[in-house]
């Protein structure tokens, strides 16, 4: 039984609203038999969608490739690995806690966070943590090409933003109940040092890298409903600057190290996700093609074609 990406997201949106006791369209929900068929599919995107839709248990936190570093004999050991970090935060929820009931804030925040998690998991991202009003996802596994992971993170960000704007946020952005709930996203790529943080007996695997931390910082610097990407991701993916990017916030710092003053400047970019999604992401393609594009030109100019490889 076939399902388009648009149909899958609409069904997921209704399922999430049902879970959080919001009004939902029952006609858009999928049957248990359909979900069971998708779970048995040979297509990984169908399997992931069914797992998200049904709410099958998964392990958040850390990273599957590096969680062994919290074993007692591994504490203090580290490994290097490439990763793309996606950080999304929701504007105004802190303010809402002073003006709206806790129950209403919980329902709205829970619905939006669940929607973002669902989309990112469909694209193969790993949920690292839910800090306050935000969500942190890592894209990339040892058995996956880092470029493919970065491209899937970019697409996940576009679909997550559109999903909130079209299926979740319109329900909340009215002056009577939930005015001005808007997401902001930061994404960057780099090589991270992985290791366990904590103290006996509790440790969690974390990534130590500039690119991981700056994803959060540049997300806070951009405006609502914007996606910011770091210069290293732009270079790695080879995004068409003229078509999809405008200059964003610049991270500039100086530090004296061993008597020598050093300076660092890092450019971030605002990604035109609406244009990219409209021109290059086919929302009505079969769900099995999640991560791929149609006949439109890609944002890749020299290294690869977006979605050439299947989701790992």
Q: How do the strands and helices of this protein lay out in sequence?
A:
Layout: H1 5-19, H2 32-39, H3 44-54, E1 79-91, H4 93-99, H5 102-122, E2 126-129, E3 134-139, H6 146-172, E4 182-199, E5 202-208, H7 210-221, E6 227-230, H8 231-237, H9 241-244, E7 245-257, E8 260-271, H10 273-280
Parallel strand pairs: 4-6
Antiparallel strand pairs: 1-3, 1-4, 2-3, 4-5, 6-8, 7-8
What does the overall shape look like? globular
For this structure, the CATH topology of the domain at 59-238 and 272-289 is: Alpha-Beta Plaits
Q: What would you say the CATH architecture of the domain at 59-238 and 272-289 is?
A: 2-Layer Sandwich
What would CATH call the homologous superfamily of the domain at 59-238 and 272-289?
Nucleotide cyclase, GGDEF domain
Strand content: 15-25%
Give, in order, the helices and strands. HHHEHHEEHEEHEHHEEH
CATH C-level class of the domain at 59-238 and 272-289: Alpha Beta
**Radius of gyration of CA atoms, rounded to a whole number:** 20 Å
So what's the oligomer here? single chain
Please outline the major beta sheet: 8 strands, mixed
Number of discrete helical segments: 10
Which blocks of ≥5 consecutive residues have pLDDT under 50? 294-312
**What is the terminal-to-terminal distance?**
22 Å
Estimate percent helicity. 25-40%
Computed structural class: alpha+beta
The tally of strands reads: 8
Average pLDDT, all residues = 89
Short description:
By secondary structure, the protein is of the alpha+beta class. It has ten helices and eight strands. The two termini are 22 Å apart.
